[in-house]
Amino acid sequence: MNIAIIGAGLSGTNIYNLLKENGNNVQIFEKARGSGGRCSTRYLNDKLIDHGTPFFEAYDENFINFCDKKVEKNILVKKENRYYPLKGMNKLCSSMLDKDDFNKNTKIVSCKKIDDRWHLYDENGISYYPFDKLIITIPTPQILDLDIELPFNIKKKLDSIKYGSIATLLLYAYTSKNILNPKILNSSYFKKIVNNSLKYNYENFSSYVIHLDSTICSEQNFSNTDEVKEFMLNKIYDVSGIKLEDNFHVMSHFWKYANVVNSIDEDYLYDEELSLGICGDFFKGNNLEGSYLSSKSLYNKEFNLVFDNL
Ligand SMILES: Cc1cc2nc3c(=O)[nH]c(=O)nc-3n(C[C@H](O)[C@H](O)[C@H](O)COP(=O)(O)OP(=O)(O)OC[C@H]3O[C@@H](n4cnc5c(N)ncnc54)[C@H](O)[C@@H]3O)c2cc1C
Asked: Model-level pTM greater than 0.85?
């Protein structure tokens, strides 16, 4: 079967991997220059900074098994009940992809069903077809932005999902520097401060990722990453009197659709007539475990036909 997947985060790469193992022809389309989605990693020569998910927890037995296999393959390390990346969080996704099936830098804008086959079109008007089935794994506002005819009930469910945003400040220096000043750590402006260099045991390289509190983030209505940078550096100066920009290289990122505020109480959506599946962390999830479980469930219940027929 020929199957197209839109989105190469954990939901997309996990279902890609399952479908490939079952002998399908699969193409995966990703608008960014690499896979990972919200598990993305920035490369500074040989140094890595995870500016999306820094580490995560697993509770479901199936997800724990999946992660433990990634530990065996030196992609993750487990400390207590947390999993940390060994070579960048994006490896969790890229390790499951065959580059011949991976269409990076390809933003899909339109999906049309013609003669019972899916035809996909990117933003440059290039078409990709024919596919027997289509799987969409991108945040719901981005699904609703696609030029695709969706049944009313699916549209209504997708429309009900709301997302929160996260703004992050990324700091790095090629020396050992510490920003863990109590005034910054205890400030209600910042939700999380991750010592990224400690995670990778870097020597003579320090890097931190600071997450702005989500309520403050939505109030600010940032329109670009420069605004995020200026706001966060000013707030750090206000609470601590420290000008971090004097000691660190500074970058920023704005995750518009960072976390799901409310989720759909189903495992995935599937329309038999359209041969269309939708999965992601907006089904019972709001985290990596939710992405994994939704994509696995969609595969098991709608695509694992060989197994079901045995
Ligand atoms: C800052 C931050 C911290 C987080 N911390 C944690 C944590 O501690 N623990 C935890 O469990 N979870 C955490 N999460 C949440 C977790 O990262 C997500 O739940 C999970 O990664 C979602 O995976 P996904 O594959 O469903 O979606 P995504 O990772 O969003 O993947 C969707 C992909 O689709 C691509 N795409 C979108 N539109 C198109 C298009 N039109 N054409 C082609 N490609 C497209 C996107 O570029 C993206 O790569 C965090 C998220 C953020 C942002």
From this structure: yes
Assess whether 183 and 102 both reside in one domain.
Answer: no
Check which CATH number belongs to the domain holding 70 and give it. Answer: 3.50.50.60
CA 286 to centroid of ligand 1, rounded, Å: 10
How far apart, in whole angstroms, are the C-alpha atoms of residue 247 and residue 38? 28
User: Nearest residue CA, atom 36 of ligand 1?
Assistant: 7
Encode 214-248: b = buried (16+ Cβ within 10 Å), e = exposed.
bebbeebebeeeeebbebbbebbeebbeeebeeeb
pLDDT at 82: 95
Domain that holds residue 18: 2-161+262-309
Q: What is the mean pLDDT of residues 238-263?
A: 93
Same domain, 171 and 149: no
Give 310's contacts (C-beta < 8 A, 6+ positions apart): none
| Claim to verify: residue 226 and residue 209 sit in the same structural domain | yes
Nearest CA to ligand 1 atom 50: 53
Is residue 274's pLDDT more than 60? Answer: yes
- The Cβ of residue 99 has, within 10 Å, a number of other Cβ atoms equal to 8
- Tell me the best of 39, 57, 269, 288 to mutate to test the pocket of ligand 1, counting ligand atoms within 8 Å of each CB and taking the most: 288
Q: Which atom of ligand 1 is nearest to the CA of 29?
A: 43
Backbone angles phi, psi at 152, to 5 degrees: -55, -40
Same domain, 284 and 231: no
Q: In the structure encoding, which two tokens stand for residue 256, read together?
A: 């518009």
Q: Do 117 and 193 have their domain in common?
A: no
Ligand 1 contacts (CB < 6 A) are 6-12, 29-32, 37-39, 52-53, 56, 107-108, 137-139, 142, 166, 168, 255, 258-259, 280-281, 287-289, 291
What residues contact 295, with CB distance under 8 A and at least 6 apart? 10, 11, 12, 14, 15, 18, 137, 268, 279, 280
Regarding whether 256 and 266 lie in a shared domain, the answer is no
